[in-house]
Amino acid sequence: MLGSVRWVVGGALVAAVALPGTARAGACARPDLPTRALTAPGAELAKGGGVLVSMEDAAKAPAMTFSIGGKRAAATKTVIGAGLVVYTPPEGAGATALQLAGKDLVTVRRGGDAKPLAAPKVAKVQYASYTGRRGTSVSVTVDITGALPSTAVAVAIYDEPGALRSWGATANAGPSAKTTTIAVYGSGSCMVQPDGFAPSPTGDKVQVAYLDASGRVSAKTAVTVTAMPQPKTAPFDPGY
What is the per-residue pLDDT across 66-125, written as a single tens digit (0 to 9) for each? Predict the structure, then answer.
């Protein structure tokens, strides 16, 4: 049984403690996922790239603008899927702020040509399921050999045909001596995730890729999902 319930809200954990003997179904309200930039403030966008934005429903991604020299220009919107959208500024723009409803999400600047990231060195992808008083929780994690590239902002799981299935922000990585662990899927009674997310069960053949600060997808690494040995708790933070 889980001793606490965790919400993932914009990359931060909101915990609602559920002590043994006091847990009740429906004891937590479902929060909304905020729209936020995964591209860091001040980032230099590669030529042709844009700002990577996470949101609850990418299929209903709002129109956004870039503020350039006091004027607004429409952003070009590209839906990656499952809560991820890239907003690209006009060519030739220098420093520019991505705006939603007139409010700045992030300020970035245009850069030059840059090579996309190489395929991740995946040690393993693991699936786990936990059953407690509130029901069943599921998690999927990716272990990357070595440190993550500095420009990688997310690790994504694609199904074998190439559709985005789930992802996790690198800001929430859990490093160990030789590998870096990223939670790319988490579900439970009080966890929220972007629309279109799907778990990757044991035995599935999937592809793993990086998403960089310019919203570009790296080359992919094919891997088969294995079962995770069940720990005592399941505290994963995908950082949606």
Answer: 988 778 889 999 999 999 999 999 876 667 889 988 889 999 988 888 888 999 999 999
Assess contact for 163 and 81: CB atoms under 8 A: yes
What is the rounded distance in angstroms from the CA atom of residue 159 to the CA atom of residue 222? Answer: 10
Q: How far apart are CA 33 and CA 136, in angstroms?
A: 21
DSSP 162: S
Separation between Cα atoms, residue 226 and residue 54, nearest integer Å? 27
Q: Which helix (H) or strand (E) holds 36?
A: strand 36-37
Helix (H) or strand (E) holding 227: strand 226-227
Name the nearest CA neighbour of 156 among 12, 34, 58: 58
Tokens of 20: 């043994």
> Whole-angstrom Cα distance, residue 69 to residue 31?
36
Which candidate, 126, 152, 149, places its Cα nearest to that of 139? 126
Q: By three-state DSSP, how is residue 21 classified?
A: coil
Contact status, residue 119 vs residue 207, Cβ threshold 8 Å: no
- Which residue, chain included where needed, has tokens 């934005």? 53
Instruction: Name residues whose C-beta falls within 8 Å of residue 91's C-beta, 6 or more positions apart in sequence.
Output: none
Contact 65, 73 (CB under 8 A): yes
| Whole-structure pTM value | 0.80
